[in-house]
Amino acid sequence: MGYAVSGLATSTGKAEESIMSLISVEEFERLGREKVYVVAQFGFKAEYIEHGRAKMRAPFRQEFLRPGGTVSGPVLMSLADYAMYAAVLSMIGPVEMAVTINLNINFLKRPAPKDVIADARIIKLGKRLAVGEVSLFSEGEEDPIAHVTSTYSIPPDHVQVE
Amino acid sequence: MGYAVSGLATSTGKAEESIMSLISVEEFERLGREKVYVVAQFGFKAEYIEHGRAKMRAPFRQEFLRPGGTVSGPVLMSLADYAMYAAVLSMIGPVEMAVTINLNINFLKRPAPKDVIADARIIKLGKRLAVGEVSLFSEGEEDPIAHVTSTYSIPPDHVQVE
Amino acid sequence: MGYAVSGLATSTGKAEESIMSLISVEEFERLGREKVYVVAQFGFKAEYIEHGRAKMRAPFRQEFLRPGGTVSGPVLMSLADYAMYAAVLSMIGPVEMAVTINLNINFLKRPAPKDVIADARIIKLGKRLAVGEVSLFSEGEEDPIAHVTSTYSIPPDHVQVE
Amino acid sequence: MGYAVSGLATSTGKAEESIMSLISVEEFERLGREKVYVVAQFGFKAEYIEHGRAKMRAPFRQEFLRPGGTVSGPVLMSLADYAMYAAVLSMIGPVEMAVTINLNINFLKRPAPKDVIADARIIKLGKRLAVGEVSLFSEGEEDPIAHVTSTYSIPPDHVQVE
Predict the structure, then answer these.
(1) CA C152 to the chain's CA centroid
(2) In this predicted complex, what is the ipTM?
(3) Quick check: B129 and D104 CB within 8 A?
């Protein structure tokens, strides 16, 4: 039913036992479409969500381009933030009020006029904060176009949606 | 005709001599509208551009809101990046190919459903890199809602637009 | 007795009313010397501490130099972190367990073989987090050599030292 | 002769062909001891250096501790910077003048009073800039204690040491 259960490679290279994501791709997409403006605006799609990991796609649009024919930075930052949001919710459930407190992005190469894929991974989930990293790729390419680290604040009482 | 010439307070608190911006508000707005997608999409406005400094505004839209009734992070990041772009161009002229290589944002408080103003300032302009900071405010409020530092890469040969 | 009470210029350019620092230069120096290794190791000095602001100095040592004859990055990062610590304690008192959760540094120019001065300012003090920025200068120079933003975590119960 | 030649896992999960490091552990340790103050001061050791990857160790010292009995932030930042330096030199050779231009660190958990290990990996090597990430661990533990991303500036003409 849309819950991914495959293993998550941690930074130490070991596979964690499979734990179900606490939000499904379908739930997350509905939350995104209804509540998060940039998703509707930019047309982002959730590809998959595992426990502590999420992959999002920005299907290419002509309007994403900036001078030089490359996908603009704000599209990349928005997609990375959205992927982090999914990765956080996969571990704490559909808590709307989880918010970004820090995002640091390094742009690595000019993104070709193609779909962009963001692959987010939670590095550390604490009681109050979650830290993760996101690698961004142009469709079909191997070298990342951008790399993000981000910190989310988790509300003390996880009031879940609905 | 739109070039601001007033002094720029540097981090050491001294006023620099007045130097004209190398791009006018009108030129920058035209560049933005025609070439930068998020500007057209999000409706950002240039308020003023001085040498090494730029103020941009995101007039409030209902669609900017995220769960909790606050302006979403991507709107803030996009506006900050746009303000940095203007501040960089104010010092090097309308060089389209200046690109962000790093952006680090700290979100400080939940932004009220109001206009957002970004105030960007170049801290250091080198031959290859420019570093600046951007403070973001909700209209009419004193405490910043977010703080950004960002690095731009400046092309070796400043091929100017037109 | 060592408490600075002068005004603090905020990012909006207005002077806040004078509020006393909750830790004196003398108290902070004692805490530093006794408890923080790098202080003893690197010989950092507290110059002044106001409410929300602190200035620290790294008196020059030959051993600070890295290849090229410039002061090494770790000295700058350590001094910036120490200045942030002082600025945070100026607002919450001598709470030992306040810890850095994020530090982002941009190196702006090669630091001359001189004293380094770090000027830290709290941008936002929340209940759980404090965000500030630090400008670093070579003694007697105007242009900053590095710029830091940093986030501190404040323990829920401010158990004060002694 | 100390050159590691094993494969490097990239962010896309594929193993790159084995390419020799352009600096050996022995060469790097000599450069560190002779030229980089913190190495002598803090006693850092190079564990291994591959093409695009480096592992450094800070053997535990009582003086590393800060209030709370944890290893202090500056030790972690210095070790991470040193590991990045090694990872950069592994790809460009012993170029002394490669310098850090940005370092962003997220502290993830309080480091136990143990050796610290930093594992650095180059994400992108360009003509002028190298971007990498560093995961820091306490000896024998699986969860990282800190995560760093960093950008190095590479001098236009790689004048190599001797």
Answers:
(1) 12
(2) 0.86
(3) no
